[in-house]
Amino acid sequence: MGILPSQIGRIIGDVMKIGLRTVLPPRCGGCGTITDTVHAVCADCWAGLRFISKPLCACCGYPFELVSDDLGDGILCGECLRKHPAFDAARAALVYDDFSRNYILRFKHADRTDLTPLLARWLLQAGRDFWSDADLIIPVPLHRTRLLKRRYNQSGLLAAALSRQTGIAWHGTVLRRLRKTRSLGGLGPSSRKREVGGAFAINERQAGKIGLDGARVILIDDVLTTGATANACTRILKQAGAMHVSVITVARVVR
Ligand SMILES: [Zn+2]
Ligand SMILES: [Zn+2]
């Protein structure tokens, strides 16, 4: 009795699936240990991750620790009251700490692009108030030399995944990074602002094509620290006609 071609295809498919599982056992995106969970989060890392939930600053998404019953929506944190950011709103999935940093570093620097669906799901949830009226998803760009070295823009991967899930168009080259900025780690707010000032630009031709004028944009980045990068990108996007910019990051610094 012969095997039908359709059966051969199925058998090859099954063998390849088994092969992939053997070659690449699922590893936790946080600590790298082998885990049999499908979501790349081991029990220890899951227990350590701090997801941000309400109540939070209506603008920058800073989580308020002191929960008061009469704290309604639309409350701003002290920072945003003092000086409103250039962006209209920001939300992050996680508090930036050792646990979330491990995920972000593996995703950015260790070729763990397989973490994209997991992180995209977290971003989807963090930005749940924004998707319904958004027009465009735009990732914070890498400078091309860094892109060549790293081979992928982690925020671009997230933007593409979010676009697939929401049906909102994404565009990875309309916002460009003109010069390589130093790592912002260890720099204070004003140095960060200086470092990213003038670092970004718009590709005008593409902006026209994708209808940036009047658009509500979702900007994707990995971490919100002082907001210097998000603000610099927002200013450029708004100069080019964007009407509204919301920022969604995997994690944010909470001091
Ligand atoms: Zn782990
Ligand atoms: Zn705020």
TrEMBL record:
Source taxon at top rank: Bacteria
Domain Double zinc ribbon: 20-81
InterPro entries xrefs: ComF/GntX_DNA_util-trans, DZR_2, PRTase-like, PRTase_dom
Domain Phosphoribosyltransferase: 168-251
Similarity comment: Belongs to the ComF/GntX family.
Stored PANTHER family: DNA UTILIZATION PROTEIN YHGH (PTHR47505)
Name under which the protein is recorded: Competence protein ComF
Organism for this UniProt entry: Thalassospira alkalitolerans
